[in-house]
Protein: Methenyltetrahydrofolate synthase domain-containing protein
Amino acid sequence: LCPPPPLPPGASKQDVREKVWDYLEASGLAAFPRPVHRRIPNFQGSHQACCSIKELDVFNRAREIKVDPDKPLEGVRLAALQARKTLLVPTPRLRTGLFNKIVPPSGATKEILRICATSQGIKEYSVPVGLDGKARVDLVVVGSVAVSEKGWRIGKGEGYADMEYAMMVSMGAVQEDTPVITIVHDCQVVDIAEELLDDHDLTVDYILTPTRTIKTNCKRPKPQGIIWHKVSYEMLEKIPILKSLRYREKQTGKDVSLQDEQSDLANANTPGALNEKEMAENTRLQAAMGSAQVGHYIESDSLSPRLGGSGMITTVYVGNIPPSVRVSELKCALREFHATPLRLNWQGAQHRAFLDYKDKGTAESAVSSLKGLSLGGNTLRVELAKNQRNKGQVEINSQK
Structure:
């Protein structure tokens, strides 16, 4: 057995990471892709460690398994596909949703399944699963930089595995007793001080190494959902699906104040002071959309001075709107996502709407903000409209 690297007293999470990464490289245990620094490290014997998952009851009973896309977990993805289980892999950095479901072609050979388990195969043989994909995950497999025999885990520091798990809780995709497994080299099993753990950190129930299977019997509770006051605006912008979850949870009455909002509130002169920009935007949106004749464009012979005479309004298409959704719900979502249109053309019977923005940049920003938005059980299709019309179209006259 390789001895784990000794850690200095009072070591931080980053100290632990650096020690493990350095040790894997220096001892010749690191495997492609190299260097292993700033990654979930791949290691010699990772496939052997992955194969031992087939001996676990929790694997054999599971029908739907979520496995991270990291290279050292490739063997687990292959084992899941070979056992004809549903394999879910998070999208890279959660940019395009939460999961991709890997769907091997019918009659796939062993070689095709092997390709499906790789990063290239994930791109070629996957279909996205939205927020309302009704995923029911029976087993979660995550990568780690370091883990303790007590089940305390340290990732590479970006927080994606913790966030993915919290999002799955919010979606109802995992339960409190859904097992979590990690695959590491023996030298990555180290003592981790409990004070390094935060309440959003994911713990693990099983650790698989090339030489042993460790059942941690960890009693520390796993995250109970997204801890919004630890989420920044920056993270919200990077992960579109996070916006949809926040909107959904806000509708149920949960406090979804972000990290930045809490500090803004603490610095405000008056308790509960509202963001003036947000209030102004909400007022303008209510005026603009409230006065719209739903289902009809409001046209005029002269362009609004606000458009600077260019007339280059850009239209955004919103499709896949369920029949149950009302225009008021879309208005509410647009307010929430700061995607204020100059005008709204609602075509509920055709399950679509068109949003007019003052220029292409504003329209593209709105598309980015609304990506992944889910209403009434459907993930909406949001894109720039294919046919842009700019003759005689103006903003609703809400500027007094």
